[in-house]
Amino acid sequence: MNNSVQTIPEMKVIHDNPSSHRGAQWFALLSHGFTKQNAIVPSVLVADGEYENRACRLIAVVPDLNNHFPRAVNGEVGLLEGMALAREVNAVVEADAHSETKRALVLIVDVPSQAYGRREETLGIHQALASAVSAYANARQNGHPIIALLVGKAMSGAYLAHGYQANRIIALSDEGVMVHAMGKAAAARVTQRTEAELDQLAAENPPMAYDLKSYASLGLIDNLLQVESATQPTPSDKHSVEQAITDALLDIKPKDTGISRRLSGEHRQASRQVRDLLKAQWTGA
């Protein structure tokens, strides 16, 4: 056990802001007994350990009030975070290059946004986050099982950079767990509709809905996990999450390196049809 992991300020900060510090809390809980690694930035937490005798690396992006970039202080994924994620993931792939059994990656996801900021945009946040996406995709395609555990917000480009490339996605069934490309208020402004009108559209079109069950029906969540409390997890919650991670690890076979299984979702008929039509045009069938 690494004592530094246990010193993460949990309950006080969580009480003040229950959603934005969930990632730090779950990281501290799940990394108990793991060896904490020194990532290049304080906003990226890394720990190495084992689940059911399978080596794995836990990774989380957390708030850093002293972040050099002000738009990243609340846990947003910015320039530094994207580069740090890519570095930590690429290090695992390189270290295991000649190993028969590849280390698993478990991503704890509580990311409210990518860090929109003039300086980060100027310095290439798009390249930093693309590096993280590429690193995760490369790891998966090289046989590293990747599991994303959604414990809070999974928003927009931040989620694409940290979580979306996983083989399996587990989400806590809690109203504080959100997967959005755009917040409802922003979507209302962009589409020039009221939030109530968006809710009406969502009732008939699951891809437009904001709830997790609708999102899961698109094939994008493998396990919507019930817990007693996402913000004050009990020992039973910890056990349930660890069991879900173990089950996901066992379910991922060595050649299961793609994410096309998502197309089998209940409400992905249109996606499947589009791909069939494109394939027919491409092959001339």
Explain what this protein looks like in three dimensions:
It is a single chain. The chain is an alpha/beta fold and 285 residues long. The chain has 12 helices and 8 strands. Strands 1, 2, 3, 4, 5, 6, 7 and 8 form an 8-stranded mixed beta sheet that branches. Strand 3, helix 4 and strand 4 (104-111) form a beta-alpha-beta unit. The longest helix is centred in the first third of the chain and has 17 residues, at 79-95.
Please tally the β strands and state the result: 8
Order of helices and strands: HHHEEEHEHHEHEEHHHEHH
The low-confidence parts are: 1-19
Shape: globular
What average pLDDT do the residues reach? 90
Tell me the helix content: 40-55%
Tally of helical runs: 12
Major sheet: 8 strands, mixed
How would you classify the helix and strand content by structural class?
alpha/beta
- Rounded to the nearest angstrom, the radius of gyration is 19 Å
